[in-house]
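pinned: reference chain
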Amino acid sequence: MTEVASQDGKPRSVASAVNRQQQFEALVRAHSGELYRYAYWLCGQDALAQDLVQETFLRAWRALDALRDDVAAKAWLATILRREHARLYERKPMPTTDIGDLDLSDDAPSPEQLGEDSVLRAAIAKLEPKYREPLVLQVLGGFSCGEVAAQLGITESAVMTQVFRARQKLRGLLDGKETEAVLHGLP
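pinned: its structure tokens
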């Protein structure tokens, strides 16, 4: 049997390498769209979101042997993506520009402001991160409460509470009220 070197330097059969390649291609096909949407919500920039997804898949390829359960692949990839996004800010200082040097006279709306979802996007962006992240993971990422809880390191009941409150706050923002909905109890 012909052998090739693996990432860790140990010999691997050609059939195993082909199987690994097919497994990775299936992961990319199945999850690249969802990962891009999540990356875009994290960073708000198209090119950066694409770069984050590429870096996520590069790290996933290197650690593909660590993936034991294909069912957990989505959560595994989302965790890698979140960590890649965090690495952007821990390695390099954020560039700053003196606001006096900027020409801010352009009053034309940006492409994000022209779309029908711009109001919803702006309202979600106004939410506190404590509420926004579980909501985005559940609604856009399609994760269950248990998966969101595992990714954020909190309990499932905390996820359900935060998502409920996020929806309340979002409803208030979309109705033009900055306050939360009032909960009424029995006397």
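why pinned: The CA atoms of residues 68 and 131 lie 31 Å apart. The helical segments are 14-43, 46-62, 73-91, 111-114, 118-126, 129-139, 145-152, 156-174.
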